[in-house]
Design brief:
mainly beta, 7-stranded mixed barrel, 3 helices, 41% strand
């Protein structure tokens, strides 16, 4: 059974069984193609930070792994973002918008495929973000993003959550073929999306947001 349209779920990133970030999201659709969710501007989210309030991207990874960290709640500051998790794929595709709500670009987030969970009162998906990404302009010109961070972190295999560099890059190249061919979802689908005005923006994290990470089956 898929998640019902309009249901509030939590989209969570897992780093070695701890939560890296948590984002409440509205289900737009959930069908044979995959799960589509919407995160509205101002939604209260949580992100992992060090004791002095810095995020992982604000310091060398060698420093980050030597510190202790916790989750800090804050509002989603950018425009709303649409996220699509294709069935059986090790990536998601995001639709970014400008300040006026117009489609700006696609963003391919390479990640271990989503694991679903449903506790009844709250449901969600857990992913392992693999850091390497692809930015895609409306004309389908594309470029890699965060290759430097990806390479830096691979040098610390005892601490990094990416297990197979080649698998991540191979997944990226598979998506590039879709991009260059203008195949779904890079064919204009959902570029005119507007959220249901009846959807309330979450101003607190829902109860159960920090439940243990969903079990992930090893390949």
């Amino acid at each position: 059974m898929g998640f019902a349209t309009g249901r509030l779920i939590v989209h969570r990133n897992v780093r070695h069984d701890r939560l890296g970030w948590v984002r409440p999201a509205r289900v737009v659709s959930d069908d044979e193609r995959g799960l589509l969710v919407w995160i509205e501007r101002g939604t209260v989210v949580a992100s992992e930070v060090s004791a002095d309030g810095r995020g992982m991207r604000s310091m060398p990874f060698a420093e980050w792994i030597s510190l202790s960290y916790g989750l800090r709640e804050h509002p989603w500051a950018g425009p709303g973002v649409l996220k699509f998790h294709p069935v059986g794929a090790d990536h998601s595709v995001w639709w970014f918008h400008d300040a006026a709500g117009r489609f700006a670009n696609w963003y391919v987030n390479l990640e271990e495929r989503a694991v679903r969970w449903d506790d009844g009162d709250l449901a969600g998906i857990d992913v392992v973000d693999q850091d390497l990404d692809i930015v895609v302009d409306p004309d389908r010109t594309w470029r890699w993003k965060d290759e430097d961070e990806f390479t830096e972190r691979l040098a610390f295999p005892d601490h990094y959550w990416v297990r197979d560099e080649s698998a991540v890059r191979d997944e990226g190249w598979r998506v590039v073929k879709q991009i260059e061919a203008g195949e779904f979802p890079f064919d204009g689908t959902w570029t005119d999306f507007r959220p249901d005005p009846a959807w309330e923006t979450p101003t607190t994290l829902p109860a159960g947001w920090n439940r243990p990470a969903a079990a992930r089956v090893s390949p």
